[in-house]
Amino acid sequence: MPVDNRLSRMLHVLIHMDRAKAPMTSETIASMLSTNPVVVRRTMAGLRTSGYVMSEKGHGGGWRLARPLSEISLLDVHHALGDPEMFSIGFARDHRGCLVEEAVNATISDALVDAQKMLLARFAEVKLSDIADDFDRRMGAISPVNPDGTSKTSDSGM
């Protein structure tokens, strides 16, 4: 079963959009994701309908955030993408009337429902700004320059 990576990809795009100085075109986003601009426009349409991004046509146009990252949760983006399936575990349906198969499927189903509830609750807690902050920490750990442009290795007089 193919993996649905739209959530991960759109979170990536939204954080880049937050950092961009200008709107990002579908072509730019498509290049970043190694996909087609039509796929980008189709995927971004759900985010636009939900009010998380907006698009501007014409020269200098493109996609930009309609809200700050601190107002968008992972759950918001998941919903805007059409609530894709969380798990790819399936059920055996080979033996109609087999009570063992029914018991196995019921147990797996109950576990998946519980796991999905927990995951969606966690998605609701995490804001995109939390992910962006994590990126900033990671970037700060490898960058020789402070956010204000000063060098991290400047001589402290010792």
TrEMBL record:
PROSITE patterns: HTH_RRF2_2 (PS51197). It comes from Rhizobium alvei. Residues 139-158 are annotated as: Disordered. Residues 148-158 have a biased composition (Polar residues). This is Rrf2 family transcriptional regulator. It comes from the Bacteria.
